[in-house]
Specification:
Chain lengths: 313, 253
């Protein structure tokens, strides 16, 4: 058996931090953009802002306790160096603070567009979008920084993690939105629900399409090379030790099936100017598939990186 | 007239272009020097301890592993120094080679590059890569990053652990425990930056290799007559290679 130094807590952290960072980034972008969401803009932004910090803090809790000596984690903040984990810790700490403040601006009962916190909220959104992207990216950079781990040592891995994080964030917002916005007592919000749902679904389809391209490139360039990387990536090809998990859970459940469903859903409006109908069953099932796929992606990548190694003696 | 303006215009453009290039170059230079200094890549240690292992003299007795265990009270199941058996071929054409292993104290240690707390560093005075347990948080990033799997998480202390060339002995003029106990005289320890040292003379007069040179770490543990057959050669189907690591909880990676 290969020794798995990074196990379930780290895998869960990578997934949860990506999910939360993605939700806050999407929320901030929705809040800051000019057109599109109409009256439901605030509700969508609120949804993402309130979801975001929870998984990030839960994941951080998991890795801090994974150390075995939780207070030791404070040593991370005695220094900053060029280790991706060092830069990532500072980013994560800043992100938790700012995303919490950002979420708090949505909490008062009087919170709404143009209230007295509006300016403060916009400033925080401007901070949360880049720091959310950084947190989602650094997890992939952290794994990619090591030539000793040929499976991870790819610049495109961070891109895959970023897209997967944003896609999970959108999925979480859609999923929670089914229960909150659709049932909202405000008829305007309820009517705008279909439109915001279209925009979210379309953005998610774009992100999933990007993920498909990156997965294709990752596999293609592994096949085009010789040596360590090729041996390592063979573990996720059909017949490899993680082949089934990768193709069924990550590619099938996590990317391909949601992508096809979403494309079918948005096609009438996107191409022919028809009507987009938000269907509750789909808005529950597709995000759940995407979240399963997001977790499976972190699982497969973290395990595959640790059961493969350079092939030379 | 038109020509003149166009020439001045062009000259101004060239000036701007050159200025821009200079600024970019200066910024890149600053960035590169910033990127290099913390990793200590250019800081050449004044002295570099190293080890030369003559595998022709190794009989696979594991006395180095035992001496190391006794010296540091390394917890059960963990190893700072170990001996691998590389068995090759099928009967009657077979061979068995011994490969003593330890931390390579690399010139470009990946473990140092990834350590988020600066807990692991290469000592400038002798080039030994050490771990400051006062700063280590047990994140296991260095264990992932070492191409030689030389590190492990000490189950008793919870910190990363590995060979430190027996600093406590070496600083008092003694040899490391594994060198001291080697009955075949297979291990030669010394200052490889001093061309007159025994290790330097032997390295100059013998063909030497390092492990996984392709990883760019530039190890300071050298081998004479180490066979580089690995288990990946089983894929070729010409002859079987089997490697026994003798590390209870670690598969060779």
């Amino acid at each position: 058996m290969y020794e798995l130094n990074w196990g379930l807590p780290v895998i869960l952290y990578l997934f949860l931090a990506g999910l939360g960072a993605g939700a806050v980034t999407v929320s901030g972008s929705v809040l800051l953009r000019k057109g599109g969401f109409g009256s439901s803009r605030f509700a969508v932004a609120r949804c993402g802002a309130l979801i975001g910090p929870i998984p990030v803090m839960l994941g951080t809790f998991l890795i801090v306790f994974e150390l075995g000596q939780p207070f030791r984690a404070l040593n991370l903040f005695k220094v900053i160096n060029l280790s991706p984990m060092s830069i990532g810790s500072w980013l994560l700490a800043a992100f938790i603070v700012f995303s919490l403040l950002y979420a708090l601006t949505f909490l008062p009962r009087s919170a709404g567009p143009g209230d007295r916190l509006a300016k403060f909220r916009r400033i925080l959104a401007w901070i949360c979008v880049p720091s959310g992207i950084s947190v989602a990216l650094y997890t992939g950079i952290m794994l990619g920084a090591m030539p000793a781990r040929p499976f991870w040592n790819s610049p495109i891995l961070a891109g895959l993690f970023l897209l997967s994080a944003l896609s999970s964030g959108v999925a979480a917002i859609i999923l929670v939105g089914v229960f909150s916005r659709r049932k909202s007592s405000d008829p305007v919000i309820r009517n705008d629900h279909h439109h915001s749902s279209y925009l979210l679904t379309a953005s998610d389809a774009l992100l999933l399409g990007g993920e498909l391209v990156i997965i294709f490139l990752f596999l293609l360039f592994a096949q085009l090379t010789i040596g360590d990387v090729r041996y390592a990536v063979a573990t996720i090809l059909p017949g490899g030790r993680l082949g089934l998990a990768f193709w069924v859970l990550v590619v099938g459940f996590g990317v391909l099936i949601p992508f096809v469903i979403e494309i079918i859903q948005i096609r009438p409006k996107l191409l022919n100017g028809g009507v987009f109908k938000s269907i509750t069953a789909i808005e529950v099932a597709v995000p759940i598939l995407i979240l399963i796929g997001g977790f499976a992606l972190r699982y497969v990548v973290v395990i595959a990186g640790q059961i493969t190694a350079p092939s030379a003696l | 007239m038109n020509d003149k303006t166009s020439i001045t215009g062009r000259r101004n453009f060239m000036k701007k272009l050159l200025g821009g290039t200079a600024v970019t170059a200066a910024a890149t230079g600053a960035l590169v020097s910033f990127a290099k200094s913390p990793a200590g890549e250019d800081a050449k240690p004044t002295k570099q301890y190293g080890m030369l292992i003559d595998t022709r003299k190794c009989i696979g007795c594991h006395s180095c592993s035992v001496a190391c265990k006794a010296e540091f009270d390394v917890p059960l199941g963990s190893t700072r120094s170990w001996v691998e058996y590389v068995e090759k071929g099928s009967y009657p054409n077979v061979s068995r080679n011994f490969l003593p292993r330890l931390c390579n104290h690399c010139r470009h240690p990946q473990c140092v590059d990834v350590c988020p707390t600066d807990a692991t560093y290469k000592r400038p005075q002798d080039g030994i890569v050490v771990i400051d347990t006062g700063l280590c948080i047990g994140c296991k990033y260095c264990i992932q990053a070492c191409p030689y799997d030389a590190r492990f998480l000490n189950p008793v202390t919870g910190f990363a652990d590995k060979c430190d060339f027996c600093i406590h002995r070496v600083s008092k003029g003694l040899e490391p425990a594994c060198v001291n106990s080697c009955i075949g005289g297979a291990r030669i320890f010394g200052d490889i930056s001093d061309p007159e040292s025994e290790i330097s003379r032997l390295m100059a007069t013998n063909p030497v290799t390092v492990l996984r040179p392709g990883k760019g770490t530039e190890p300071n543990v050298y081998y004479i007559a180490a066979d580089d057959s690995g288990e990946h050669e089983n894929n070729r189907g010409w002859y079987d290679v089997r490697i026994t690591t003798h590390r209870r909880e670690k598969e060779r990676r």
